[in-house]
Amino acid sequence: MNRSAYALARFYAKLALRNPATLFAMGGAIGYTVLTSMDEATRLQHSGLRLNLLEVMFHIFDNPLYTTFGLFVPFLIIVSPLFYIKDLERLIAYRASHRSNLWIAKVLAIVQITIVFLSTAFLIALAVTALQYPVAFEWSDAYAHLAKSSTNPAERPDYRVANAYLYQTHNPLSVLVLQVLLFFASFVLVGVLSAVFAQIFQRPAVTLILVAMYWIIAQTPAGMVPPVLTFLSPQAHLLLQIRSSAFPFAVSFLYLVPTLVLSFLLGQMKTKRAILG
Questions:
Q1: Which positions, given as ranges, span the membrane (predicted)?
Q2: Which of 26, 130, 133, 211 is the most exposed place for a label (fewest CB within 10 A)?
């Protein structure tokens, strides 16, 4: 990898992020879904169960509605133009010393866009919640109360806010670090797989459908699809509510990281074999 790959990656990233109207719409979608996701935490606060800032942030990003419509859909819209600029890539390939620079640059651009996008989402959620909840780096009494009652969800409909396994085995800062890494790996994987599917099928609609199915299959009701298919969805690895001794963070990293590496290698192989002339 040389300097031209980095320069091309910056070009790709600017191409995806250059539309202010799109970014404004994505910011509005993120802000709206954050506010929607806060309903449960607000209800608990009104009930006298006051969570701290990190716990509320965990709850917001643990909402499948938010991660799908507030994060996944806008992210896919932002990165999708990168996959269908063949005329431009023919010119770049003609001038580039290594055709593999095209793929490396595209992946680096996806990484850059992921960092910008997720950082923006986090800052929006933080801006909404920072003045309403106390800052603390230990589990609150409210979270402890909910975690202890979460073993019987039928009697406690608010169990989803807390997780007894996390309360017993992790502190909030370690959960924060692990979740940041998982979100980063999951969205980079979605972007890279989208690029690979675009190379294979050459049809935007097919790519979007496949990637969307890959993500939302985690929301399929239990029993409708084999559990292994749910496990394959990156979204399933972002939900704190399903963490347990049988599904620790290590399992998610052992799936997401090798899958990301294999996707990168597959895309690199396809790019080297592509005829761009």
A1: 21-38, 65-85, 106-131, 176-198, 205-225, 245-266
A2: 130
- Closest listed residue to residue 242, CA positions, set 219, 214, 215, 212: 219
Please give the Cα distance from 173 to 5 (Å, whole number). Answer: 35
pTM: 0.88
Type of residue at 263:
S
Angstrom distance (rounded) from CA 126 to CA 122: 6
| 179 HSE (CA, 13 A, CB side) | 25
- Inter-residue contact 230 to 238 (CB < 8 Å): no
Read off the tokens for 13.
């990233």
Contacts for 61 with CB less than 8 Å, ≥ 6 apart:
67, 125, 179, 183, 238
pLDDT in tens, 172-202: 999 999 999 999 999 999 999 998 998 888 7
**CA–CA dist 235, 161 (Å, integer):** 17
Closest Cα to residue 61, out of 171, 163, 173, 161?
Answer: 161
Among residues 202, 9, 199, which one has the least CA distance to residue 104? 9
Q: Which two tokens stand for residue 144?
A: 């402890």
pLDDT tens-digit map of 9-59: 777 777 777 767 567 767 877 887 777 767 766 776 777 778 899 998 998
Buried b (16+ CB within 10 A) or exposed e, 42-70: eebbeeebbbbbbbbbbbbbbbbebbbbb
d(CA 21, CA 9) in angstroms, rounded, equals: 22
Full domain range(s) for residue 260: 3-273
Task: Give strand pairing partners of 244.
Answer: 247
- Indicate the number of domains in the chain: 1
- Which residue has 């899958």 as its token pair? 259
3-state secondary structure of 158: coil
Distance of alpha carbon 108 from alpha carbon 2, whole angstroms: 12
